[in-house]
Amino acid sequence: MTKSIKNLTVQERKKYANAIRRGYFDHYDECPRAWKHTFAGAFIWKNPMRVAYIEHFRHLLGHIPTWDDITDLNLEDYAEIILRRYSANSARTNFAEMKAIINRHIYEVDIPSKQFAQILSSKAEPSQSIYLNEDEIERIDKYIPLSPTEEYVKRIFLIEAYTGARNCDSARLTISNCDISSGLITYVSQKTKTQISLPLHSNLLPYLCAPATRKITLSTFNATLRQICFRCDIDSPTTLYRRGRYESGPKWQFVSSHTGRRSFATNLFLRNAHPSTIARMMGHSSPEITMRRYIIGYIEADKNVMEFFKKEDKERETISPRDEAKGRETTSPSDADR
Question: Which of 62, 68, 111, 136 is within CB 3.0–4.6 Å of 132 for a Cys-Cys bond?
Fold first, then answer.
């Protein structure tokens, strides 16, 4: 039952029912005017149908976002989540709404972020991501965690990499989802409410037996995962085009919670799995979503197109480097002229 807020009208209670149910109005009655000038309050009061976006920010931080949380790093992590989960048009709309709230209060509140306008932008630009190959995932599998947080992050990430499940689903998967006799793992996606079944990876069982009792924020998860990858020497030089610019660094710097799911799709594709099969295992409604968002380095081209790029190589295979050198020695300029 939705909590009753005495300083709201009946119409307002209906309008903000979702936000009330999620606890955003818990302190509203204490001082409605002050509440409306908090970051979460100002955003929700103006955009009551956008509570889901604030929920993403809340999950990232581990608490209801305040003005002090509007930092460059927090906004970058938030923007990454929104761009990953929503279409470009939806992301642009949300970013515009957030910037409007910030600009409305910028002279009244000390905003830590000095680049919020640039960070909260979503142009029609490509954004590259990485995946971990099977050898790199094997290194993480063999890694011995140095803390309970590392142990938890390693467990959830490997469940993602071996099942393709989302982070929220990976935290819920246990041995009870497995049918050992058939070698399948089955679960219902928390986001899409669809049932997903796929083969049980041989390395997965130990992680399904361990309890998932810890609660950490997404930013802590990503920071810990990068630390694990750093210690596993996942450091090949990497350059990606993201947020309108090229970024270079060791590979571990670009790993995030979504890398496990992306690695699952890409590694299966590299083993010649059909896109429709991968899409079904990931709970996608169509293979196009899988190919566009999750498989790294995929180029859609038929055999005739690919032959164009391979033609020269085939011709070169018929002539060895030694033959080429010999030909140059026996053919003089005058012979060529004739």
Answer: 136
Beta bridge mates, 242: 245
Q: Give Cα 15 distance to the centre of its chain.
A: 32
**How far is it, in rounded angstroms, from Cα 177 to Cα 186?**
5
pLDDT per position as a tens digit, 10-50: 889 989 999 999 999 999 999 999 999 999 999 999 999 89
What distances in angstroms separate CA 35 from CA 7, 25, 29, 41, 111, one per listed residue? 12, 8, 9, 6, 17
Residue 230 amino acid letter: F
Query: 181 with 161: CB under 8 angstroms?
Result: no
The predicted structure's pLDDT at residue 289: 79
Q: Which amino acid is at 255?
A: V
pTM beyond 0.70: no
Burial category of 23 from C-beta neighbours within 10 Å (exposed 0-12, middle 13-18, buried 19 and up): exposed
